[in-house]
Structure formats: C-alpha cells, structure tokens
Amino acid sequence: MPLFDYRCTACQADFELLVRSSTVPTCPQCGSTALERQLSRLAPAGTSASIVAGARRAAAREGHFSNYSKSERAKLPK
User: Fold this and answer.
1) 10: nearest Cα among 32, 36, 25, 28
2) What is the predicted pLDDT for the residue at 71?
3) Structural domain of residue 33, as residue ranges?
4) What is the spatial distance between Cα 55 and Cα 76, in angstroms, rounded to a whole number?
5) Rounded to 5 degrees, what are φ and ψ at 73?
6) Number of domains in the chain
7) Residue 25 lies in a domain
8) Which residues make beta-bridge pairs with 40?
9) What is the C-alpha to C-alpha distance for residues 18 and 5, in angstroms, rounded to an integer?
10) pLDDT digits over 10-67, tens only?
11) Distance CA 42, CA 58 (A)
C-alpha cells in the first residue's frame, strides 16, 4: 500500500494516507473525497542517520527490539 500526501480542497487540510487501490481516500477532518494528491517531501540529505538514531532511542524507551543489533536479536527467545 503506497503512502500518499493529500490536500483537501474542501477544508484545506494537509495529510498523508496509506491507500489501497480499491479504496477512495477521504479527508480525516471533514470526510470529503475532493482531494489533490501532493508531491511528497524528500528527506534532507545527511539527516537520515540522525533520524534512525532518534527512532532507535525512542524504541529503546518504549521497550521495542529495534534498538538491538542483529546479533543481540538472534539471542532473543522466539
């Protein structure tokens, strides 16, 4: 399912949605189907490492296993 950015022409809300090919996207604020698909914003160069590090810190705080290395995850019970 692709992730698309939309702008509602009825209420001017900007949002992103995961859209299946069989569904019609609707605005989460007003329910309108009059939407314009927008160009997705690209991540600025050089910040992806900091984004990954921040996500791993958040995962560690929340108790998820994504902050573990592959060798550490291999030792976890399945």
Assistant:
1) 32
2) 83
3) 3-38
4) 21
5) -65, -30
6) 1
7) yes
8) none
9) 9
10) 999 998 888 888 888 999 999 999 999 887 666 666 667 777 778 778 877 777 766 6
11) 22
Q: Tokens 């900091």 correspond to what residue?
A: 50
How is 30-72 classified by DSSP, letter by letter? T----EEEEPPPPPPTT-HHHHHHHHHHHHHHHT-GGGS-HHH
Residue 21 lies in a domain: yes
Amino acid in position 63: G
- Gap between the Cα atoms of 68 and 53, Å rounded: 12
Side chain identity, residue 44: P
Q: Is residue 24 part of a domain?
A: yes
Give 67: exposed, middle or buried? Use CB within 10 Å, 0-12, 13-18, 19+. middle
In a domain, 77, yes or no: no
Rg (CA), the chain: 18
- Written as one letter, the residue type at 31 is G
